[in-house]
Design a protein that fits this description.
Layout (H helix, E strand, L loop, with lengths): L2 H6 L3 H11 L5 H9 L5 H8 L2 H4 L2 H9 L5 H7 L5 H8 L6 H14 L5 H8 L4 H7 L5 H7 L7 H8 L6 H9 L7 H9 L5 H6 L6 H9 L5 H10 L5
C-alpha cells in the first residue's frame, strides 16, 4: 500500500495524530489523502487550510471546498480560486453547506457574461437554479435547449419564458416541442397566448385547451389572426 492509500485508510485517532505531527511536511498527494479520509475532522481541514504551502495546490483547495467539514470561512475563501466546471459541479452538491453553495452561485453569476457558448451550453445542462434563472433568456437557443434537460428546471421557470415578450421564437418552438414540458397545461396555454410563439406551434396546442380558455384566447386582442381562425375551426366560437 502506498503512502497516500495508507493515509486515506487511517483510523480516526491515528489520522488526528498523523496530521498533528506531519502537517508541515505533507506533500500534495498526502494532503489530498488526508482530506479524502472518511474520518477527517473540521480541525484537520482547518490545519491544512492554514498551511499556506498546501493550500496553494489546486487539488487541495478543491477538496477543502467540497468537504463538509471544512470551516465555512476557509471554504468560502477558496471558491474564488476554482475553475468554472468545478464551481458548476459543486454548486449542486447538497453535501456542501448552503452558505458555501451560495458563495459559489455568486461567483458563477459574476462570471457568466465571460463564458463561451460551449461553456454556457455545458453549464445549462447541470447548473444550480441560480444559474438557470440567469441563462433562461440567453440569446442562443442552444443554451435554452440544454436547460430543458436540467433536472433542476422548474415549471415556473419555463412558464416565465412561455409568457414573456423577451423569449425568442426559437425558444418558444423548442418548448412547444419538448416531450416533457409541453404536456404541462399551464405552459401550453401560455405558449398559445404568446403572440411570439410560431403559429404552427401555437395551433398544434389548441386541441389540448379547454373550451373556456379557447374562448378567452379568441377574445384576446393580442392573439394572432391565424390562431384565432384555428380556434374558430375547432369550436363554435363565431368569427
Amino acid at each position: 500500500m502506498n503512502s497516500a492509500n495508507r493515509i486515506q485508510s487511517l483510523p480516526r485517532e491515528e489520522l488526528v495524530d498523523f496530521v498533528k505531527e506531519n502537517v508541515r511536511q505533507l506533500i500534495e498527494d498526502e494532503a489530498v489523502a488526508v482530506l479524502d479520509n472518511p474520518y477527517v475532522t473540521p480541525g484537520i481541514c482547518q490545519a491544512i487550510a492554514q498551511t499556506q504551502r498546501l493550500a496553494a495546490f489546486y487539488s487541495v483547495r478543491l477538496r477543502l471546498v467540497a468537504n463538509k467539514h471544512t470551516p465555512q470561512a476557509h471554504a468560502v475563501k477558496f471558491v474564488h480560486y476554482l475553475y468554472w466546471s468545478d464551481l458548476v459541479r459543486l454548486s449542486v452538491d447538497v453535501k456542501i453547506p448552503a452558505p458555501v453553495r451560495r458563495a459559489i452561485d455568486n461567483i458563477l453569476l459574476t462570471k457568466i457574461e465571460k463564458l463561451t457558448l460551449g461553456e454556457r451550453i455545458a453549464s445549462a445542462k447541470r447548473c444550480s437554479h441560480a444559474l438557470i434563472k440567469a441563462l433562461l433568456f440567453d440569446p442562443d437557443p442552444r443554451v435554452f435547449e440544454a436547460l430543458l434537460v436540467n433536472q433542476r428546471v422548474r415549471e415556473d421557470d419555463l412558464l416565465l419564458v412561455a409568457s414573456s415578450d423577451r423569449a425568442s421564437a426559437a425558444q418558444l418552438q423548442l418548448l412547444a416541442q419538448d416531450q416533457k414540458w409541453s404536456y404541462r397545461y399551464s405552459i401550453r396555454k401560455a405558449l398559445v397566448m404568446n403572440p411570439l410563439t410560431p403559429r404552427s406551434a401555437a395551433a398544434s396546442l389548441l386541441r389540448s385547451l379547454t373550451p373556456r380558455d379557447l374562448q378567452m384566447i379568441h377574445r384576446n386582442p393580442k392573439t394572432t389572426v391565424y390562431v384565432r381562425r384555428c380556434i374558430e375551426r375547432l369550436t363554435s366560437v363565431p368569427a
